[in-house]
Amino acid sequence: MSRVVAAAALVPALLLAAVAAWAQGPSQPKLLCERGPFSTRAFGGTQWQIYGCNDNRSVAIVTAPGNPAIPFYFLLAWVNGVYTVSGEGTGRRDLTAKAYNDLIKLNRQQIDALVSETLKRN
């Protein structure tokens, strides 16, 4: 198995563990983003896959196979009535920064469209 393929195979598992840890607060249910991937989109000039989360409001944006920013993910999480953007991984910082800059420019309607996509194909 090539190094890129091996890294790509680990991203969903790492994503689930990291998102679950991120969302575990004393009064917060565990956030799992295991539905998907639903589509591949370009952010920052690289390809990312969209995953749905169990709160039906949040989405995870995960490096797609072949993306030189592997391994990395972003979480667009619905927190206290607003979307927050966070990310984690060891992928190339220059590429993840470009993707982050695109993601923070998404408006509520665009994020809601991503969420809706993950809900149509449960």
Topology (elements, then pairings):
Blueprint: H1 3-23, E1 40-43, E2 46-52, E3 59-63, E4 72-79, E5 82-89, H2 93-103, H3 108-120
The Cα radius of gyration reads: 13 Å
Give the oligomeric state of the chains in this entry, treating copies of one chain as homo and distinct chains as hetero.
Answer: single chain
By DSSP (H or I, 4+ residues per run), the number of helices equals 3
The tally of structural domains comes to 1
The ordered string of helix (H) and strand (E) elements is HEEEEEHH
Instruction: Kindly name the structural category.
Output: alpha+beta
**What is the average of the pLDDT values?**
83
Q: Terminal Cα separation, in Å? A: 30 Å
- What overall form do the CA principal axes indicate? globular
How many β strands by DSSP?
A: 5
What order do the strands of the largest sheet run in, or round the barrel if closed?
1-2-3-4-5
Helix content: 25-40%
Weakly predicted, low-confidence segments: 1-11, 20-24
Largest sheet: 5 strands, antiparallel
Strand content: 25-35%
